[in-house]
Amino acid sequence: MRRRSLLIAVPAGLVTLAACGDDKSDSSKASDSASPSAPRTSEAPPPKIVDGPLPAITAGTKFDQKPTVAKGSGDPSEQLAVKTVIAGGGKTVAENDFVVAHYLGQIWNSGKVFDNSYDRGARLALPLTQGAIIDGWRYGLIGKKTGSRVQMAVPPTWGYGEQGNQQAGIKGTDTLVFVVDVKDTFNATSSAKGTEVAQDDTGLPEVGTGTDGKAPSIEVPDAAAPKKLVANYVIEGDGEEVGAEDSVLVQYKGVLWDGGEEFDSTYGRKQLTSFSLQQVVKGWAQGLTGKKVGSRVLIVIPPELGYGDNPPQGSKIKKDSTLVFSVDILAKL
After folding, report:
1. What's the number of CA atoms in the CB half-sphere (13 Å) around residue 256?
2. 46 secondary structure, DSSP code
3. pTM, whole model, 2 decimals?
4. Would residue 9 count as lying in a domain?
5. CB within 8 A of 110, min separation 6: which ones?
6. Can you give the residue ranges of the PPIase FKBP-type domain (predicted)?
7. For the chain, how many helices (H) and strands (E)?
8. 258 & 313 share domain
9. Same domain for 173 and 276?
């Protein structure tokens, strides 16, 4: 089992999209995105941001390289120490954004690395939302620019508190040192960007092409549902292709073929979703594999590649439903 991230929350909507009744689903990978590491809704006042002290980065000094960080020397600050090691020139990170980043975390006193995304070979999409991530990240990364490497020393007050994090070997007195490479940032209004593709097949749903952050329309035709999976570009981006084992950050909306009723939407929650393609129903996994980042994709999923006769409990999805999705692929992680 891969070690799960200590910082990421359960993806919103995963209950609806998660594969069920599929012997090939990988529960160990699903656990990678388990409980949020923020132990509670924070009640601590905002910290004072100070320049240091911070231990030296002794190797892997370039952006996106796995860093090696020296053990902390002397006593760490009781406030939040933040340093922009490499200044990027991209978008500015805001509160409640999903930040796409590589990171390494270690304990000040021992220098023990308790987690890093570089070895997993996949960036993480981290929500900078109160209660979903430790406050040190929220206060330390807001206002930074994409393309930046940021180093932080986070005392317990804005980390895991007095209870620490037993799974990671973090005590309630430990100051934590992080190096974060901020690749990109997205918010609830992020949309696909690319070239519109003609939607000529009148037997398939037509998806709206607006990119203003609002949920696109999905008009389902008065016709029989296709028997095979449909995965067509609505807007074709120019980013890298998504692989079958990749994780993605997306906006999406789902409706039923019969009646066109909406049953799930990140737009309605005003929160993006990230997940591994090995965690979701086969129709999603097959439909997004090979598609380019930045794209909007129409996916029509027949029952055998969706939920069949075992739909998610409490959802509007009925047995043997054909599902229609509009999916904006914002990032490959």
Report:
1. 14
2. P
3. 0.85
4. no
5. 71
6. 96-186, 245-333
7. 5, 18
8. yes
9. no
- Would residue 62 count as lying in a domain? yes
Domain-ending residue, one of 153, 168, 186: 186
Write the pLDDT tens digit of every residue in 311-329: 888 889 999 999 999 999 9
149 and 241 housed in the same domain:
no
Quote the domain boundaries for residue 173. Answer: 36-186
Distance between CA 297 and CA 4 in Å, rounded? 29
In the numeric block, which tokens belong to residue 156? Answer: 């317990």
The answer to whether the CB of 301 falls within 8 A of the CB of 325 is: yes
Tokens 């509670």 correspond to: 40
Final residue of a domain: which of 186, 220, 235?
186
Q: How far is CA 152 from CA 72, 82, 128, 135, 292, in A?
A: 12, 5, 15, 12, 33
- What are the tens digits of pLDDT across the range 269-293? 998 999 899 989 999 999 999 999 9
- ω into residue 221 within 30 of 0, thus cis? no
Task: Give the separation between CA 274 and CA 7, rounded to whole angstroms.
Answer: 13
List the structure tokens of 100: 């796409």
> Same domain for 182 and 199?
no
